[in-house]
């Protein structure tokens, strides 16, 4: 009986490992930003905070590293220190190693547009739907939009063309 139990446990572990690899292969690669919405917890309001046509990419590498660079629609070079500083409100960018489960990924942030994120673990939920990847942040006060209070980002990507 012990031998049968051992075989069953090993078989289950191998199946879980194969599932995790399959899930990772579905997420890995380059994704193009389609939309970036922020939902305000208090009101349920959805805002296209990066405009109707934001730009950007996320790349989940096979090497276990993720790169995000997301920018708002209509960005133009700043002509003053104040205008250059304002550009930070239409930018989200970070990188680090990542760990993936079937519904979440966690990024161990090593470099970020917001220095407060460096050294943190950013956990996100995600949903795959064909060629679409939707990323949902936890409820929190986002550094780019603190006036909204508690909010979450709903970021949608499509598989980038090769």
What does the secondary structure layout of this molecule look like, with pairings?
Layout: H1 2-27, E1 29-40, E2 46-47, E3 55-60, E4 65-71, H2 81-86, E5 91-100, E6 104-112, E7 121-129, E8 132-136, E9 140-141, E10 150-159
Antiparallel strand pairs: 1-2, 1-3, 1-10, 3-4, 4-5, 5-6, 6-7, 7-8, 8-10, 9-10
Keywords: Signal
Domain Lipocalin-like: 29-160
Protein name: Lipocalin-like domain-containing protein
What is the CATH H-level superfamily?
Protein HRI1, N-terminal domain
The total strand number stands at 10
Task: Identify the CATH class.
Answer: Mainly Beta
Return the CATH architecture.
Beta Barrel
What share of residues are in beta strands? Answer: 35-45%
Mean pLDDT: 89
Q: Helix proportion of residues, in percent? A: 10-25%
Q: Number of folding domains?
A: 1
Give the radius of gyration. 19 Å
List segments where confidence is low: pLDDT < 50 over at least 5 consecutive residues: 9-17
Q: What's the shape?
A: globular
**Total helical elements:** 2
Under CATH, the topology can be stated as Lipocalin
The structure class reads: alpha+beta
The biggest sheet amounts to: 8 strands, antiparallel, barrel
What is the end-to-end distance?
A: 51 Å
> Largest sheet, order of strands side by side?
1-3-4-5-6-7-8-10
Keywords: Signal
Protein name: Lipocalin-like domain-containing protein
Organism: Roseateles rivi
């Amino acid at each position: 009986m012990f031998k049968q139990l051992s075989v069953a446990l090993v078989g289950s572990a191998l199946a879980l490992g194969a599932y995790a690899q399959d899930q990772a292969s579905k997420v890995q690669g380059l994704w193009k930003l389609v939309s970036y919405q922020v939902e305000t917890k208090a009101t349920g309001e959805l805002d296209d905070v990066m405009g109707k046509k934001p730009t950007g990419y996320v790349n989940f590498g096979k090497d276990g590293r993720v790169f995000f660079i997301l920018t708002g629609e209509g960005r133009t070079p700043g002509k003053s220190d104040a205008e250059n500083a304002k550009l930070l409100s239409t930018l989200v960018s970070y990188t680090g190693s990542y760990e993936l489960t079937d519904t979440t990924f966690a990024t161990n942030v090593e470099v970020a547009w917001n220095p407060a994120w460096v050294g943190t673990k950013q956990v996100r939920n995600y949903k795959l739907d064909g060629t679409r990847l939707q990323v949902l942040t936890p409820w929190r006060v986002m550094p780019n939009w603190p006036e909204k209070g508690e909010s979450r980002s709903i970021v949608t990507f499509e598989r980038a063309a090769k």
